């Protein structure tokens, strides 16, 4: 077990299976020392635990928890191409999309779920640049979607 996966276990978490693509794309691709994930939905065992807009059918706190799941799914996608999460030199960028009710403006707090998980698991390597964007709708009526870019070590 890698040190990153051991840290996940210490936090009571486990790395899920890679979420299969919903369309014509790969869950993650490597280009040089970087791995780019596709947008990761908060899928748990092949299903979305909650659907709807944040600020309407979904609370900000529920959405923050869903963003954590998205980050876990992103780590699984990274591992699928990198082979070992201990190769992560740093998380470079996180982009989070929040399906938002028209008056909801708390997108940064929602995407903190993903950012905080990455920092908990990876320490300083998990601190990153980020965008948190409100959108009208996401695939499958998901409340949140997160994509991650990581830099790998050469080993």
Structure overview:
With 155 residues, the chain is an alpha+beta fold. 30% of the residues lie in helices and 23% in strands. The chain has helices at residues 3-10, 60-82, 107-122, and strands spanning 28-31, 34-37, 88-99, 129-135, 144-152. A 5-stranded mixed sheet has the order 1-2-5-3-4, covered by helices on one side. Helix 2 crosses helix 3 (107-122). The relative contact order is 0.24. The model has no long low-confidence stretch (mean pLDDT 96).
Distance between the termini: 17 Å
SS-derived structural category:
alpha+beta
DSSP helix fraction: 25-40%
Beta strands, count? 5
Largest sheet descriptor: 5 strands, mixed
> Which regions contain 5 or more consecutive residues with pLDDT less than 50?
none
How much β-strand is present in the residues? Answer: 15-25%
Radius of gyration: 15 Å
- Would you tell me the overall average pLDDT? 96
What sequence of helices (H) and strands (E) makes up the elements? HEEHEHEE
Overall shape: it is globular
Number of helices: 3
Spatial order of the strands in the main sheet? 1-2-5-3-4
């Amino acid at each position: 077990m890698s040190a990153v996966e051991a840290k996940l276990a210490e936090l009571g978490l486990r790395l899920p299976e890679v979420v299969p693509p919903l369309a014509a794309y790969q869950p993650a691709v490597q280009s040089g020392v970087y791995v780019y994930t596709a947008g990761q939905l908060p899928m748990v065992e092949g299903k979305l635990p909650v659907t709807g807009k944040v600020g309407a059918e979904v609370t900000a706190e529920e959405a923050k928890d869903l963003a954590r799941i998205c980050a876990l799914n992103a780590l699984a996608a990274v591992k699928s191409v990198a082979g070992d999460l201990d190769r992560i030199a740093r998380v470079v960028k996180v982009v989070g999309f929040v399906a938002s009710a028209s008056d909801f403006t708390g997108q940064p707090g929602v995407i903190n779920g993903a950012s905080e998980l990455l920092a908990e698991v990876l320490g300083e390597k998990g601190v990153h640049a980020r965008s948190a964007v409100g959108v009208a709708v996401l695939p499958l009526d998901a409340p949140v979607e997160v994509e991650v870019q990581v830099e790998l070590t050469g080993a």
